[in-house]
Amino acid sequence: MIKKGFILFIPFVLFLNALPAYAQLNVKAAKDLIVRILPKVADHFEVEYIPKENDKDVFELQSVNGKIVLRGNNGVSIASALNYYLRHYCHCLITWNGANLKMPDKLPVVKEIIHKASPYHYRYYLNYCTFNYTMSWWNWDRWQQEIDWMALNGINMPLALTGENAIWEKVYKRMGFTEAELNEFFSGPAFFAWFWMSNLDAWGGPLPQHWMMTHEALQKKILARERSLGMMPVLPAFSGHVPPSFKKKFPRAKVNQVKWTSNFSPVNILSPEDSLFTVIGKKFLKEQTREYGTSHFYSADIFNEMKPPSPDSLYLDNISKQVYQSMYDVDTNAVWVMQGWLFYSDTKFWQPTQIKALLNAVPDNKMIILDLWSESHPVWNRTNAYYGKPWIWNMLHNFGGGTYLEGCMPCVTHQPADLLNETKAGKLTGLGLTMEGTEQNPAIYQLMLDNTWRSTPIDLNKWITRYVYQRYGALNPDAVKAWRLLIHSVYEKMPSGFGGPESVITMRPRFITFKNQENIFDYNNDSLLLAWKLLLKASPSLGNNDGYHYDLVNTGRQVLANEAVLLEQKIAKAYDSKNINAFEQLSRQYLSLIDDMNKLLGTNKDFLLEKWIDAARSWGITPKEKNLYEFNARDLLTLWGNKTSTLHDYARKQWNGLLTGFYKQRWERFFAYAYICLKENKKLDMHYFNNQIENWEWSWVNSHQTYQGNPSGNPVKVSRFMYDKYVKK
What we know:
By secondary structure, the chain is α/β, with parallel strands linked by helices. It has three domains: 4-117, Chitobiase, domain 2 (2-Layer Sandwich), CATH 3.30.379; 122-458, Alpha-Beta Barrel (TIM Barrel); 479-726, Four Helix Bundle (Hemerythrin (Met), subunit A), CATH 1.20.120.670. It contains 29 helices and 17 strands. The strands form four sheets. The chain has an eight-stranded parallel beta sheet. Strand 2 and strand 3 form a beta hairpin. The longest helix is centred in the C-terminal third of the chain and has 31 residues, at 546-576.
């Protein structure tokens, strides 16, 4: 035990040299993080190492001799101490969508030691899908910002998938596979999440060598930074996915063809019962460890949204044993981190007998289960807490990186803390975020992460007041009232459907009839309208704050998206009643509304399609590569496959450029066709229309139009104009 009183009086260099190597690395990494985040005042902070407390991560902060001293047992803990100081003493906050780092002229003094210990051993972060719906085009600068944000918020167990194709290429080429054969295997850069989950082959490819080379280098930087802060990255393990030509090279191999959706051809899964499974698994893990090192945590999902060949418990037991064996043979400290999504997505197949067989084949201390959608559809509570396996409570919240205001804040404020004292929760060992897309709804993610260093429920009303102060840098009463309305409307409960509420604008055009016309939304829409009004009222004191601009625009976007739902109902009614004049007039209003949404979103950098496309093209070194990456970028957002894909519009992002360049174009064509049908008294043939629109969508996905590349217009003025037009009417 290092005594704090002694640490304070020895020179930092001597102190650092007295620490173990890993602690020295963590302390240095934490100091570097402070310089990156607060370059002008970094010399006002000191960093010290303290050991864990009863095997729990711990941090402290206090003022000593005019300095703010941050202590922790690793870099993440020290960064968390910094975040606590920024938020609770300086009223500052860093989020994906806006950062308030307006520091006081004189740094506040911490009069008493602040001491926090985390009740969660693991704080997990990321979903396979996040690496595409959000992170497909991230460079090192963006990754560095994210890793700093992760450390500030106490995350210590991030999923790390970048650059894995480089490992696969080395392994399979040594086994005799050619580049041409691997081109039929590797997906494009926007679809690797589903390639790693064994859902598809080749779509969006062939993958250029330059991509593999640059992302191998990027992964090494990501992992080095994460580990320097004391994080434990989770790397993938072999789960059986093999190239389409595998059977030709190994004709005796036991390979199963498994189909994910009707959009893609079946993939080839090498059976774990085949002796080649452990051979390849060991080759992969050895190569990965050679290039990327290891923290001994490995992700492998063998039946993600795909039905196993047999429900037989002996078969499933053997499968699980072989998958783990391929890890253990290379790393005896290996821990299998498995998503529990399969137990939710196919409840009919995964009955207690099957779940037990899959889980019990691996020692309890060698497997951790991610309860992927705990806040809404938990699986732990119907599996006796995964039959004794350590598991992690996660908030999924977002699907496809979609743009919408929603979430269950009350769920997040109490569920994690309540389970800490729940005997039925078994070996609850962590909490995490498993959203499919980030950079949206920053408030609910901050709320969830604020459970990291506490073991009691959060008082939401007190929390939202502090959040407004931290996010906007001022405790504006109108902004507080606005957020109270938001937490009791859009953020009060889970939506009734699967995932978030899809905007009617982003649906492939058709007439939609809601069964309950009095309750179209899952919340009181009037509360949303009033919240927008109050945020606008707060503009004189908050108008220069980035987070305020984002929230103002995003709230207005939701208001207009909801207005589109109501307007579409009127259009459908006019069509059904054959009122051609009303139909024509209302259709024009609908298209005008899309233009207005586009203009509003164009005032903020976080809602620009061109930003996404430019980032994609920036990775290419030839016109051919740039065009391939742009195709990937456009296709993921829209068709999600070929022109007949059933996954179309899954990402449903409401972005400037995408609204007018894609969604409005579809609605114009639909209204024009419906108008002709009305005028000529013909039946609306949706099969005919969908065939026509599929061809147009495919041409858009393969096109190269440019859109607005930078924010344009004053977000407050544009918001006020839209409010007056659509609400104050």
